[in-house]
Amino acid sequence: MTAAGFTSHSTTSGLEGVALAVHGNFDLVILDVGLPDVDGFEVLEKLRGQGVAAPVIMLTARSSVTDRVAGLEGGADDYMSKPFSFEELLARVKLRLRSSSGSSTADAASATTLSHNGLTLDYRTRRADVDGRTVDLSAREFALAETFLRHPNQVFSREQLLSNVWGYDFDPSSNVVDVYVRYLRKKLGAERFETVRGMGYRLV
Question: Domains of the chain (ranges plus CATH)?
Fold first, then answer.
């Protein structure tokens, strides 16, 4: 990571990692599931519970769908199974940092938010504001909403959303995209997310 131009800090203790993340103002966390003191899933739960909004990439030797879903549902932004190439990890780190930084602008507030038609996403709190009402979103819901807000009125196929939001190979026959679009409709307004028959979804 240092050779790639990043300043990093590492620890083999999950509990120490929680303390570092809470007080260290890091831009991103790479979290191994197999830790000597506490499970990485428990570390993730503590991070999100204590308000750490930085993107989290989980690393694990466990490759089952159940474990991947557990990590993503627990608030992870990405999930890599061992063994993996460092080049791929570095690419995912850069992608998550770009996604969490917001659009570059002289206005600091707008650099940490993304808005369209009464809907605003706040990268600092990982929450949405809908016509003045604050809504909590899971990591997957936030990432999906972000994809739509970055490209309003653009139609996304289910395959595109799986690739852009989930970030790993996923069964294309899965209905996970439809499930999460329903979540967003319920939380952010059904009228915002239009089904384009035979093609996918778009934010209107």
Answer: 14-101 (3.40.50.2300), 108-203 (1.10.10.10)
Alpha carbons within 13 angstroms on the beta-carbon side of residue 103 total 13
Q: Where are the alpha helices (DSSP H) in 29-175?
A: 40-49, 65-73, 86-101, 108-111, 139-150, 158-161
Q: Using one digit for the tens of pLDDT, what is the confidence trace for 130-152?
A: 988 999 988 888 888 988 988 88
* Residue among 111, 112, 97 at smallest CA distance from 28: 97
**CA 201/CA 204 separation, integer angstroms:** 10
Give pLDDT, residue 196. Answer: 93
Spell out, as residue ranges, where the chain has pLDDT lower than 70: 62-68, 100-112, 167-173
**How many whole angstroms separate alpha carbon 166 and alpha carbon 144?**
9
What is the DSSP secondary structure assignment for residue 163, as one 8-state letter? I
Task: Give dist(CA 23, CA 11) in Å, integer.
Answer: 14
Task: List residues bridging with 107 in a β-sheet.
Answer: none
Residues 54, 74: Cα–Cα separation, whole Å: 14
pTM: 0.50
CB 128 within 8 A of CB 121: yes
